[in-house]
DNA sequence: GCCGTTTTCGGCCCGACTGTTTTCAGTCG
């Protein structure tokens, strides 16, 4: 599918246009990109079927965009884009990732200082070349350096939701390849970590050579790093590396255990093996030279006196002790989820209608969905005001009625995502919030507030008896933004006292993150896993929130949207 | 650059904050 490739180019063209200070055009390019991204059919297919004319039917695609698409499909290039790159040859994406640096600043930095990439930018900032520039200053320079630090930390790692679908596709192909008996993902991807460096795949194959050749010739492979007797390594067009290791069948479990890691967990398990007079390696468990286990992971753990430990727990953060004492958690599973309560519709900045969102939720086997559009403070998301909320409530009421008539067991809940303002109040009147089924509140502005101030700001919001869920509690966005300053212990305490549910956000926020989830669980708090969907296909992100929850040792009972609706409602303040 | 019935031209994605200014541009959500 060329959809994503073209969308990426359109997004970049939008940035170039922004650099030039062009009005509105960038928005048109971004809109076209979103449209392509969320298209279910292959744009190449659409074009092949109906030519330019059918391209024009895609929303946000006009004459000019259709022309670009045609050009790309035919020549693999878009002339206008090539021209832009030539006139300003720099790494926009990289530079823009630095918080506080946007397209306009990038252009100035390039023209005045020749900054082309992150490295140039860092050098310029460190040698204090930025401060004297017109429109810049000391503070900007300092912020840039901080931004670079963050960008560096997250470099080379990819968000799990970007990688897992690609990795799964490859895995399926390998599994189906002739002579492949078994195959599995391993590494941090299998442990469900929020970011992934590279993908590890293990397989058992009759003909190692053939399996390797198949692997390195897969579509999406951009470069082959190498191919040996047991391992092949490639670079994918999506930007990450992927390894395939072919291991003997009798060692598959041991290898899987070893390559799943983490390193810390492996050190601990090997230590236990040693204490029992055994040797654990990626080839198996040995007593002297005799192999006593290794075909399956379960067998490996059993041989050292442990029950099976779920991959998400393998961080040597107490899972070994828990296993020894029979106290391992029974982790929540994706299939336990009965609904999603943080979903946006086209009433605000979302893409799909309430009905479309509902339909998708039903197809997923959910029992309920909660519509929680932004409220008025967030102008960019076209947040709803009091009046609009009431109007929306009417529409939801009608839809619910329709389901009842059709005798379908499904319910739409009506909520909203309010904004916690600087003083801890929210932007919708209480008498309106009271009427909704539930209310989400989140911090969306003044993120650089001081810790004490931010903490009491949120504490105050939690005390509001209409606010049921505190969304994305620490404000971080993976790879983009650090969490804001907040006293998390105090937030946990306040959540406990007020019965506020903490959200685990499945989108690129993945916030709460694993360690915080565990702290919340230990405190006996209830959480909810939501997707924060802005369009229907985002509803699928749920599994990443679940993975994060599993890493935080969460069980079904800790997560309120595993409950049937009647029980779920009991956890909201007004019904408690 | 896209879109459309209140418009085929003139609206679109706005408001707060920051850091820089001396009245505002750029960035962010």
Largest sheet: 7 strands, parallel
- Assign the CATH superfamily of the largest domain: Metal-dependent hydrolases
Number of contiguous helices: 24
Tell me, rounded to a whole number, the average pLDDT: 90
Structural class: alpha/beta
How would you describe the shape? globular
EC number: 2.7.7.7
Organism: Candidatus Staskawiczbacteria bacterium RIFOXYB1_FULL_37_44
Keywords: DNA damage, DNA repair, DNA-directed DNA polymerase, Nucleotidyltransferase, Transferase
Domain DNA-directed DNA polymerase X: 1-315
Give a structural overview.
Keywords: DNA damage, DNA repair, DNA-directed DNA polymerase, Nucleotidyltransferase, Transferase. Its EC number is 2.7.7.7. It comes from Candidatus Staskawiczbacteria bacterium RIFOXYB1_FULL_37_44. One of its GO terms (molecular function) is zinc ion binding. InterPro entries: DNA-dir_DNA_pol_X (IPR002054), DNA_pol_lamdba_lyase_dom_sf (IPR027421), DNA_Pol_thumb_sf (IPR037160), DNA_pol_X_beta-like (IPR002008), HHH_MUS81 (IPR010996), NT_sf (IPR043519), PHP_dom (IPR004013), PHP_phosphatase (IPR050243). By secondary structure, the protein is of the alpha/beta class. It has four domains: 3-153, Orthogonal Bundle (DNA polymerase, domain 1); 158-246, Beta Polymerase, domain 2, CATH 3.30.460; 251-324, DNA polymerase, thumb domain (Beta Polymerase, domain 3); 334-575, Metal-dependent hydrolases (TIM Barrel). It has 24 helices and 17 strands. Strands 11-12-13-14-15-16-17 form a seven-stranded parallel beta sheet, with helices on one face. Helix 1 packs antiparallel against helix 2 (25-37), helix 13 packs across helix 15 and helix 22 packs across helix 23 (542-551). The longest helix has 20 residues, at 386-405. It is globular, with a radius of gyration of 26 Å. The structure holds one DNA strand of 29 nucleotides.
């Amino acid at each position: 599918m060329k959809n994503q490739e073209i969308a990426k180019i359109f997004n970049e063209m939008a940035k170039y246009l922004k650099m030039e200070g062009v009005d509105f055009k960038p928005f048109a390019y971004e809109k076209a990109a979103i449209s392509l991204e969320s298209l279910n059919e292959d744009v190449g297919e659409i074009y092949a079927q109906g030519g330019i004319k059918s391209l024009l039917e895609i929303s946000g695609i006009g004459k000019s965009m259709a022309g670009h698409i045609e050009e790309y499909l035919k020549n693999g290039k878009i002339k206008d884009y090539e021209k832009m790159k030539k006139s300003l040859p720099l790494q926009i994406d990289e530079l823009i990732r630095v918080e506080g640096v946007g397209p306009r600043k990038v252009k100035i930095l390039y023209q005045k200082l020749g900054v082309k990439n992150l490295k140039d930018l860092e050098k310029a900032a460190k040698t204090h070349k930025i401060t004297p520039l017109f429109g810049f200053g000391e503070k900007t320079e300092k912020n840039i350096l901080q931004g670079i630090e963050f960008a560096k930390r997250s470099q080379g790692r990819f968000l799990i939701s970007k990688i897992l679908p690609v990795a799964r596709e490859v895995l399926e192909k390998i599994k189906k390849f002739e002579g492949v008996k078994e195959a599995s993902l391993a590494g941090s991807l299998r442990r469900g970590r929020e970011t992934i460096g590279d993908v590890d795949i293990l397989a058992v194959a009759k003909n190692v050579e053939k399996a390797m050749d198949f692997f390195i010739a897969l579509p999406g492979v951009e470069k082959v790093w190498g191919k040996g007797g047991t391992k092949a390594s490639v670079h994918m067009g999506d930007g990450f590396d992927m390894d395939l290791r072919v291991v003997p069948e009798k060692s598959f479990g041991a290898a899987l255990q070893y390559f799943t890691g983490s390193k810390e967990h492996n050190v601990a398990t090997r230590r236990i093996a040693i204490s029992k007079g055994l040797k654990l390696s990626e080839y198996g468990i040995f007593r002297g030279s005799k192999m006593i286990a290794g075909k399956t992971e379960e067998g490996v753990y059993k041989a050292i006196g442990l029950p099976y430990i779920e991959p998400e727990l393998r961080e040597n953060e107490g899972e070994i002790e828990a296993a020894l004492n029979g106290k391992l958690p029974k982790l929540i599973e994706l299939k336990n989820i009965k609904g999603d309560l943080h979903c946006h519709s086209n009433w605000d900045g979302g893409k799909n209608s309430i009905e479309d969102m509902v339909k998708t939720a039903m197809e997923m086997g959910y029992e309920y969905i909660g519509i929680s559009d932004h409220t008025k403070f967030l102008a960019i998301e076209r947040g709803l005001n009091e009046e609009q909320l009431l109007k929306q409530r009417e529409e939801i009421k009608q839809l619910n009625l329709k389901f009842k008539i059709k005798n379908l067991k499904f319910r739409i809940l009506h909520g909203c995502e309010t904004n916690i303002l600087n003083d801890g109040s929210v932007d919708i009147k209480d008498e309106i919030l009271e009427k909704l089924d539930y209310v989400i509140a989140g911090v969306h502005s003044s993120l650089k507030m001081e810790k004490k101030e931010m903490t009491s700001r949120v504490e105050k919001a939690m005390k509001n008896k209409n606010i049921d869920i505190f969304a994305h509690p620490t404000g971080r966005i993976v790879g983009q933004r650090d969490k804001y300053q907040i006293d998390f212990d105090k937030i946990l305490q306040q959540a406990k006292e007020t019965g506020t549910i903490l959200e685990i956000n499945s989108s690129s926020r993945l916030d709460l993150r694993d360690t915080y989830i565990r702290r919340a669980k230990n405190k006996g708090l209830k959480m909810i896993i939501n997707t924060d969907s802005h369009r229907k296909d985002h509803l699928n992100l749920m599994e990443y929130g679940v993975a994060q929850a599993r890493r935080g040792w969460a069980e079904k009972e800790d997560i309120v949207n595993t409950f049937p609706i009647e029980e779920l409602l009991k956890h909201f303040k007004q019904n408690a």
